[in-house]
Amino acid sequence: MRDVLRFLSKFILAARPISTMTEAFAVVGFATALLQLVEFGTKIVRRLREIEDCTSEGAAYFKGLRIRFPFMLDLVRKIMLQMEAGVVSDKSKEIMYPVVQNCITQAQQLDKLISRSLPLPKDNSWMRGKKAVYGVWSESEIERIDASLKSDLELLMQAGTFQKVNRSEHSEAVTFAPTFSIAPNIQLTLSQQQSQSAPLPWEELERQVHPTQSIFMVPFSRDSNFLGRQDVIDVVSEKFKKCQSVTLSGLGGIGKSQIAIEYCYVFRDTRPSAQVFWVHGTDPVHFEQGYQEIARKARIPGWDDLKKEKLKLVQEWLQDENTAEWLLVVDNADDATMFYSKRSSELGRLQNGSNSLARFLPHCSHGRVLITTRDRRLGERISQRQGIIQIAPLSAENSNNLLRSKISEENWSEDDALKLVEYLSSLPLAITQAAAFISENSVTVSEYLEMLVNDEEDLKELLDEHLEDPRRDWRSENSVIRTWKLTFEQISKESPRAAELLSHLATLNFYEVPRLLLRNDKETEIGFRTALGVLQAFSLITATRGQNPICNMHRLVALATQRWLELRGTLEYWQSRALSTVGRRFPGPGQQHFREFTNMIALMPHAQVVLGYQFTSTNDMLACAKLLISTALFDLSRGEYQQASDKCERSLKIRESLLPPDHPETLESVQTLGETLLHLGEFGTAKTLLQRAIVGREKSLGPLHVDTLDSLSDITITYLELDDLESAETTGRKALERREKVLGCDHPEYLVSLNIMAILYQLKGDYLHALETTERVFKERERLIGSECPNTVTTLNNLACLKYRMGDLNSANQLLDRVLECERSALAGNTYDLQVSLSNKAAVLAAQNRFQEAKSVLGDVLRMRESTLGPSHALTLFTMEALADVLGAGDDAEAAMKLRAKVGEDGTTRQSLPGVGVLLRAGLLFD
Fold this sequence. Notes:
This is NACHT-NTPase and P-loop NTPases N-terminal domain-containing protein. By secondary structure, the protein is mainly alpha-helical.
């Protein structure tokens, strides 16, 4: 209310003397009407944004109005400022008054339509559907209101020449350049009493007026802190020497418009007599209004004639050889269909009736066109693939300088600032937004960084914060997420398949996403590549070349996409779809062959992401339990036993809550957990679980089922670890005989049982029988699965162990060298297999009295196990004991005593393992 009274009082004091009381009330009524229109318009803009956030379907009907209303409000505010300055004539007020009243009426009607169409949080699905249907029924009424407001807007624009308003930074003083009086076509349109064939004297005079100096139509002041883009400015200048059209392409918020603004000022500095024009290319309405503004400012003959086609008028004037040199900027030209395809819903409303706006971009030798766009394909087309410039993020140094220029010293931290700009990928919009939040909320750079890093939801909220930025178009979104949301909506409209890919990528790990997770089974190669190309054109992803492209998406883009999916109500759907895709592609129990190892490495990060989602449906929860088992088995193959155990326990918990205790899937989780605990050295618990799995599987699947036989193999290994050789031989022979009967002697799983029996013979001291069986397993595995497969290498390790026990140390040493070479080339990282082979190598070296070499090797193993398993793990302590024995045998008794004391403090080792003896491996994985 204070603002209303302030405006009215200023207006009345500034107004010229009025002859009658009636006229005085009319003038005050016009001022009140303007304020009322601003109030209604602001409410409408806010509610239109709510519609877009709640439903994309409703947003489509109201899109034109959402574009037009902010433009009208800006125009009304300019009229109010001119009235405050006393430069609006009474005649102008009298003519504009009914136009403003009509705008208010249309706004009130629109407010009622929105109330009936806008879903509320408390609405159920039926009510939301009802409101969506009402929105469809109201489409014709919405179009009528839009058309009426468009007409009113054109009339208000021609009601006078509104000069640039200069408001002092530290006061409310307003100054204007001299303004031209009202264009009487408004009065002519409203009263229909004059004939257009007989123009009024001042109308004819206005047509003859031409600007006495060059026009500089850039809606932004120059940035005195413009940083790090001088190289791009130079490239633009070089491109214009060869091309008439140059395009700046890149991700939303990367700084394209800021570069264009700076280039406009550079262009004016170097060519003072040239004209500079700025047009918004966001949609047909703003594009046409930009051309209308050019026509008005340049006083092109016919600029104020409502029947003249302004697009064609301006294009022809710019191309006229008598027109001075010019630069035209088309900012945010992101909609390719607007420039090159039919768009009946909006383009049909343009005066020219054209279905393509690209034809109105002028081409001549004395003019230049600078385009900014997020869609590289559109930029390439407009610039004929010669003038395209891809804008990259700022350098780390310039990003840091940009942040520092906007933050006070008291909030500054150099180290945290460097981390922050790196975290924000040197994206100018994100940096500017961060700086605004830091300054406005009195937080430090360190505190802001902590909020970003600690919680993804905080990060989404901070990136969604709308903070005003005078360096950006007031119609543009000033938050990172909302800026990219416009890009996502554009992609959804142009390429639904690309939007699907974007949604799918955002719910995966979004880094190094392999092709097998992206391409649909029945999708054509051209369709898949085209969809990828759309996302690359908008700079949302990068993709490698070749037959199997790997896609990368920045984390900020992924979070913005997730936020977009949340607003659309589809995030849970895409999370479920990601789970289904990864679960289908990740090999499960009995499918994890060595040839799949590379694929599983690539899939593992994406599996970890989808396993972190919260699923509520039974199908999704069971799919999650299945993927947990699949990834746990892969963890086992890499020696990550604790991770495997955690996943198995989670899987078992899900399945026991949803399935019967003897269900095959429940028993699968029981079995895998038992196998995992076996590797962790928890033999008692492992034995209990594996026995449960055997009993349950024999009952539900039968004694000859492959899963039942897997359980028999695992329980046999458990008995071997517990030194219960008699029980191990009973279950081992049973598994061997049944596998031979069901699978045959040349099946990989039969060889697993045969290998277990070879280990049993070693431990019983039956070396000849063990040698014969181990060599047979090695030859068969080499033939069936290859010499580099881990299970083949495992058999070679066991053969080396046998040679060691038989006293053939040279042969054992040579075999272990072959084992280590294979493991280092085939399996990356400090895997369990590599640790075992190195331990065996040390044992052989110690037996050869090569204690220094044995000490060095065991030192490496100890560091690996402390890193991967922890200092108190049984295998870590076993390695300490082995190293102590080597040190003692090598005459370093003091060091040996210290190690043994440490082992005593941390616990006892596995008594079934000899101090420096060799370890055998059963080879249960990668068959």
